[in-house]
Write a structure and sequence with these properties.
It comes from Methanoculleus bourgensis (strain ATCC 43281 / DSM 3045 / OCM 15 / MS2). InterPro entries: TFIIIC_Bblock-bd, WH-like_DNA-bd_sf, WH_DNA-bd_sf. This is Transcriptional regulator, MarR family. It is a single chain. This protein is an alpha+beta fold. It has two domains: 63 residues, Arc Repressor Mutant, subunit A (Orthogonal Bundle); 41 residues, no CATH class. The protein contains five helices and five strands. A three-stranded antiparallel sheet has the order 1-3-2. Strands 4-5 form a two-stranded antiparallel sheet. The longest helix has 16 residues. The radius of gyration is 20 Å and the shape is elongated. The protein starts with a helix and ends with a helix.
Length: 113
């Protein structure tokens, strides 16, 4: 994936509601044709979805990142689930005792394999 494709994907992923294609090329500071090619590659890769959208009577497209299934191995250490899921604490991840303990279990599990 090219740097511009990665940048476009990050911009699209950062907006929960999506990004208008007519705005994306302005944000990326590229022309609309180049933006269309980038969007096509992201669509073909299955990373985004495109929905027809009318803005001030002009047809454009709303681009949204596709949600991908999470590999359960990423959130499990042994039988312990990542403590951040559902956590309501406002903490600094580097200082969170629950997260550090979970990471310790994960590292210990990998060491035993």
């Amino acid at each position: 994936m090219s740097d511009q494709e990665e940048e476009a994907l990050k911009i699209i992923q950062s907006q929960r509601q999506g990004v208008l294609q007519s705005e994306l090329w302005k944000i990326l500071e590229i022309d609309s044709r180049k933006c269309s090619r980038i969007v096509k590659r992201l669509l073909d890769a299955g990373l985004i979805e495109r929905v027809e959208f009318r803005s001030d009577g002009i047809k454009t497209y709303l681009l949204r990142a596709k949600k991908r299934a999470i590999d359960p191995c990423v959130i499990l250490a042994g039988e312990e689930i990542l403590p951040c899921i559902g956590c309501e604490r406002e903490c600094v991840p580097e200082e969170c005792a629950l997260l550090l303990d979970w990471m310790y279990h994960l590292a210990f599990e990998e060491f035993q394999e």
